[in-house]
Amino acid sequence: MEHLNRGGFDFDLCNRNNVLEKTGLKMKGFMKTGTTIVGVVYKGGVVLGADTRATEGPIVADKNCEKIHYIADNIYCCGAGTAADTESATALISSKLKLHKLSTGKETRVITALTMLKQMLFKYQGHISAALILGGIDINGPSLHTIYPHGSTDQLPYVTMGSGSLAAMGVFEAKYKNDMTKEEAIALVAEAISSGIFNDLGSGSNVDVTVIETTGVTILRNYQTPNERKFRNNPYIFKQGTTPVLKQDVAPLSTKVVIEDIMMS
Amino acid sequence: METLKLSALPEKDKQQPISHGRFEAYVDNGGTVMAVAGKDYCVIAGDTRMSDGGYGIQTRKYTKVFQLTKKCVLATSGMQADTIALQKRLKSMLESFEKEHGKPMSTPAIAQFLSNTLYYKRFFPYYTFNLVAGVDEQGEGWIWTYDAVGSHERVKYSSQGSGNQLVIPLLDNQVAKFNQQIVEGNKDVSCEQVVSFVKDSITSAGERDIYTGDFADIVVVDKNGVHWEKFELKLD
Lengths: 265, 236
What we know:
The structure holds two protein chains of two kinds. By secondary structure, chain A is an alpha+beta fold. Chain A has five helices and twelve strands. In chain A, the strands form three sheets. In chain A, strands 10-1-2-11-12 form a five-stranded antiparallel sheet, covered by helices on one side. In chain A, strands 5-6-7-8-9 form a five-stranded antiparallel sheet, covered by helices on one side. In chain B, helix 3 (about 165-175) runs antiparallel to helix 4 (about 190-210). Chain B is globular. The chains are: A alpha+beta, B alpha+beta. The interface of A and B includes residues 58 and 59 of A. Chain B: It holds the Pfam family Proteasome. Chain B: InterPro entries: Ntn_hydrolases_N, Proteasome_bsu_CS, Proteasome_sua/b, Proteasome_suB-type.
């Protein structure tokens, strides 16, 4: 019974996974997001950007997935790494923040989201493969943070993460300046993400942009779509009967379902 | 009592051999090639993207289709260095043959010759996945598909490379008419229809395979010779 209340970190399942792998069990591959994600602080707020490609090894699993996640009304988070990890980490902290806001009665702060995320990721010692860009605006003004899978964080005016981060950072280092206007910031973010999309094979498809300012949030889903399909053959037509029907069972709906009229009061 | 060991160095038998990174001879530069044979023509397609094996692009303009004679082309995916070495080797042997025999090598002969060349390096293979496509002396369309060490088979259609598994099912369904109870359409398909279908196939491969994209060479071989067309794919 004593092992139940040891306290501290419990990595029994990680040990079990390693043992299983050694005996030959092949673990199912994870869906990674490849990814280029960026964030930039401008004069009145924060602009976040992301590409929309999700990969499973060399294959594109999703051509238009969403990588900018809602954390709170004034805080959004881009995620790179294992898709399930970024989804569940951001959803969990978003939920915790909602309860926290009701408990405190105050507007959520970016550093609260930051602290919750980093403490969770550190607790899991990097096994949760989520590399995040957290951006938002609160009583202390606009702020932008990066969070690494092991739990370290940075606060910076411009950030990039993911496999396309080097391509995107090249653009930022050349063109970033302090106190940009909203239009300049959006254009810069779109250019950085495009750089990732075209030069990194792990990133692709469309550019998503989210603008967070004091007046509210503007979600520009598919802000740019520079990768529409270029060629399409005449449609392939398969006549009825192409796939042989072996058995058919037709029953009127009323024998399976009871249909009632209910008076709505 | 155990003797005290006073040494800063680890004991002889516990010394780990210094492990350098092993020399990796092969790299897969990615890309997809495919070919479909008609009655008196062949349509071959190959994308032009070259990757570094990881997430980077080395070039967008590396042609994977190589013309061997007026009636035969070679399409190769896999490692670029081995592809070029193989192309050079074949080219020089073809030229010798032509000088010795007074005529160019026929397509079936080239097909066999490539197999021999690949098997010659059975124990240090060319990391190449080949397709030989062309017309024979009578003008009939031929395609041969190879593995890395020369096993080959004459087929009506084939594909190789990173997008192979995306393209083959499409060819199986539309060219060989597999898994269809009622087969639609005429038996004889025109060259233009096949070219359109091949463009569609390689575009589809480019959608879902990160190593396929940029541009594609669409090559038609018939009794009149070899005709090249450049076709755009997505750059992302």
